[in-house]
Amino acid sequence: MDKHLINRRQFSARCAAFGLIAAQAAAQGVDTGAASKPAARTVKLPGGAIVPALGQGCWHLGQGRHPIDVEEQALRTGISLGMTLLDTSGDYGSGRSEQFLKAVIADQRDRIFLVSKVETYEVSGDGIASACAASLARLGTGYLDLYLLHHPVPSAQFSGVVAAFEKLRAAGTIRAWGVSNFSLGQMEDLFRVPDGARCATNQVSYSLNNRGIERDLLPWCKQHNLPVMAYSPLGGDHNLVIGDRTLAQIGTAHGCSAAAVALAWVIRSGSVIAIPESGSPEHVKENAAALSIALTPQDFQTLNAAFPGPSGSQ
């Protein structure tokens, strides 16, 4: 882990400057000299909401990994750089992640696309409504932009879950709903129940070293115009890709970190939202550069060779 952190810090100063300059240039329509078109910066959800292609995961935040003020600064830094989608859950730290976010979003709720989740053990009876109300209280807000079922329940329960979500949506308590960790078969079952096709996203693990969804789930989602939200887009705590030499070399060519390259690859299609987590302002700046860099065809070829996906994947 220390080796990975050192690799990222080697790029942080250059990447922070590049990310800020490129983001400003993009906003003004200025050509930054990139060899090809940058990764899509936004993704459109089925209901029409436009969200940033790069958000911020909050799984471990507010739970002592870093000083609270540093984590708050990290989130605010990301928001200022366009990473305004924040992903949490009532289950993260037994609610501490949501409680931590309350102070961050209090003065800028209208800028934030807020995502939280309900757990499988909470879906019976009026459990979804109760769980949502508890999350809203911890977050100090009156609504969620997106509410997800964190893990699948048996398909026989899908109709009840969808009905509960739709009731919350009709009341304005949530603006959209979706699922997480659903397989292709489960997505097909979901779309068969009444209003199941109102699902806004499927949040799943996806990264250069975890490309399994390209085999069937990702093509199905694209066919149904359903964006995927990628958690652990850098490989996850115990399988990070940021120390990889190939990513470092491509990062050097683009003046950014290995992490930014990996994230730019994840959001390359315009139909995937990546939600990396960081409690460090410096690392958040590195991540944000993914919104500005333009990977070349040669970069993609090199990455596909270094991180082969399922047969036929691009």
Q: What would your notes on this structure say?
A:
It is a single chain. By secondary structure, the protein is α/β, with parallel strands linked by helices. It has one domain (40-306): TIM Barrel. It is 41% helix and 11% strand. It contains 11 helices and 10 strands. It has helices spanning 2-27, 68-80, 96-105, 127-139, 158-171, 184-192, 217-223, 245-254, 258-266, 281-288, 297-306, and strands at residues 42-44, 50-52, 56-57, 85-87, 113-118, 146-149, 177-180, 202-205, 228-231, 272-274. The strands form 2 sheets. The protein has an 8-stranded parallel beta sheet with strand order 3-4-5-6-7-8-9-10. Strands 1-2 form a two-stranded antiparallel sheet. Helix 1 crosses helix 10 (281-288). It starts with a helix and ends in an 8-residue tail after the last helix.
CATH superfamily placement: NADP-dependent oxidoreductase domain
Mean pLDDT reading: 88
Question: What is Rg?
Answer: 19 Å
Helical segment count: 11
Structural class comes to alpha/beta
Largest sheet, in brief, is:
8 strands, parallel
CATH topology: TIM Barrel
What's the short story on this structure?
The protein is of the alpha/beta class. The protein has helices at 2-27, 68-80, 96-105, 127-139, 158-171, 184-192, 217-223, 245-254, 258-266, 281-288, 297-306; strands at 42-44, 50-52, 56-57, 85-87, 113-118, 146-149, 177-180, 202-205, 228-231, 272-274. It has one domain (40-306): NADP-dependent oxidoreductase domain (TIM Barrel, Alpha-Beta Barrel).
Please outline the helices and strands.
Elements: H1 2-27, E1 42-44, E2 50-52, E3 56-57, H2 68-80, E4 85-87, H3 96-105, E5 113-118, H4 127-139, E6 146-149, H5 158-171, E7 177-180, H6 184-192, E8 202-205, H7 217-223, E9 228-231, H8 245-254, H9 258-266, E10 272-274, H10 281-288, H11 297-306
Parallel strand pairs: 3-4, 4-5, 5-6, 6-7, 7-8, 8-9, 9-10
Antiparallel strand pairs: 1-2
Helix pairs in contact: 1-10, 2-3, 2-10, 8-9
